[in-house]
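Support request, please re-run this one:
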Amino acid sequence: MTAATHSTLFPRVPDSADAVLDGLDPEQREVATALHGPVCVLAGAGTGKTRAITHRIAYGVRAGILQPASVLAVTFTNRAAGEMRGRLRQLGAHGVQARTFHSAALRQLQYFWPKAVGGSLPRLVERKIQLVADAAAACRIRLDRNELRDATGEIEWSKVTQTVPADYAAAAARAGRETPRDPAEISQLYAAYEDLKRDRSVIDFEDVLLLAVGILQDRHDIAEQVRSQYQHFVVDEYQDVSPLQQRLLELWLGERDSLCVVGDASQTIYSFTGATPDHLLDFRTRHPGATVVKLVRDYRSTPQVVRLANGLLAQARGRAADHRLELVSQREPAADPVYTEYPDEPAEAEGAARRIRALMTDGVPASEIAILFRTNSQSEIYEQALADAGIPYQLRGAERFFERTEVREAGAALRGAARFGGNDALLDDVVDLPSQVRAVLSTKGWTTEPPAGSGAVRDRWESLAALVRLAEDFARANPAATLADLVAELDERAAAQHAPTVEGVTLASLHAAKGLEWDAVFLVGLAEGMMPITYAKTDEQVEEERRLLYVGVTRARAHLHLSWAVSRSPGGRPNRRATRFLDGLRPGSGATAGTRAAGGTGGIERGTGGGTEPGGPRARRRTSRTPARCRVCGRTLTDAGEMKLMRCEDCPSDMDEGLYERLWEWRAGHARRIGQPPFCLFTDKTLIAIAESVPEEEGELARIPGVGQRKVRTYGADVLAICAGQEVADGGEAN
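Re-run finished. Output below.
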């Protein structure tokens, strides 16, 4: 019996303190018995970290060393806190507080507010988005719903990183954040939001931590009262703490060092919310006498899965990678991970469904199978493939595809166009079904190119893009189909997904899968552009994408399938390749130059092949890239529009006005012919950039931000002809 053997729902409570230690491996036992002084537990995936820390608390309580009411264990989700409380009860450690940071802080605020401030604690606003909308209106800043969500996210990030409104722009630039609006506007909005909260006497989720910190800093008597209550602290998932949570923890501790933290820097995947592994990595610097225990015995995954996980981290770079843990599987060998390249995305989804059906036939329960993807927008095609195969499924961490707001709005717009399309100028001269759908959805935010950055705007675009692809596939299979036929198809699909499922395959994003595990895991969509995601630009962002894949791999116990498609749709251009993260790891991929050995083990040979990460041509281009600078004054550019122009907005332009007008007229005419909004061809700023640089050949044109190789192939001949002073006829041919 291993330390990871799953207990029954109602295990027998250990009859003594020593019995609590039964079944722990040597390192877990070291954690459980290290009850004095600061302790740092570096715990790899599947190594039984929750088991170790709950047995530590239980042993201390059962041995009479720790008083139950004096222990505060904090983690990051209500689910994790509930699991910890349940395990402690099973071990006979009743009365220990296991809470999230916010829950613990809110409880203290409610108790101490009358004494510290007077009166009752202001009302807590569960969802702040309406307040942000009111603040935007007060500032006369117009935000659509998606911009509103993204701006709300920026306010949340600012507060957990303890950034005040006046410092937002500088802090966002330092962090390399893709801001949804001009940083000055976000700063103004943030300030108005804080004023509005004060006027209405309400607080938000982040205020709970901020106010708790403020009271503990200002009222030493209250701080001492809290410290007299809680003598011993345990923090799980310590790599995910934000600067604000770390400050609260320091105030809880005071000058004491009775602290145990548990974490794994290689599982840091929430830096966009303010989480940082620095507190974990700097723990021994802050606490020189700390006991550090490394848990590397993996009880979850087979040696084959662990070998791949170790290989991924062996190629990593950065500070977290320098502190990586090499896992050692404790399970019997089983099947190797399966790598599959598919011709297109529908084939990939159908292939996953076939393999899942085979696993279920072999006795693997549907609830022990998961399909994990990078973005929630990828779910629809897998939902449909599973439904077609008669396999029940459930979504985790996201609403069903057809229940998303943007999908419902798109469906209503398509239904209206199908009913009244004959009177809709938007559909004039649009012949085929996919073009009709693209024209309709362009009014809802769809564009031919995805928006920059991540967040709600990107998620909305991905959902609409999935509908466009669905329309293309539907038309390919049914050449005579009308818009009304497509709407009927969408309605049938939506209705089929409402069937209740008691047991089903889990569909989840990689972020939502953190902390979970299954017998069989399918990691899908592992192509460049999706893994790493296209908007991961900096080395730090790319490394976080690698860690995200590592988290996905380590969710699998026995069966691991990794797949990608070389084309988006059937018959499409096969121009995709598998993620660089698998170079040198999957069969037939060659080796990756310059990677570090995985601690001398891991079973992966390293050679001098021509991989692209790290050490290959692409990696060299990435590390040598310099900041975009204005070609007029030399200032570093951060605004996306200015980067397209390669100059500051207020620097003098050397644009050829006549050329710009000819490009503008050509764009308008061509957009009318294909039934697309003009900005889907080129934005105004891209036209300005073209008119300023006047490219003479395709390479020069492709290098202009907003153009790229695909648009060069589609529109390059026309644009270069216009730049050369030639006339372009209505048919698109130069005279």
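Residues 456-477 form the longest helix (22 residues). The mean pLDDT is 82.
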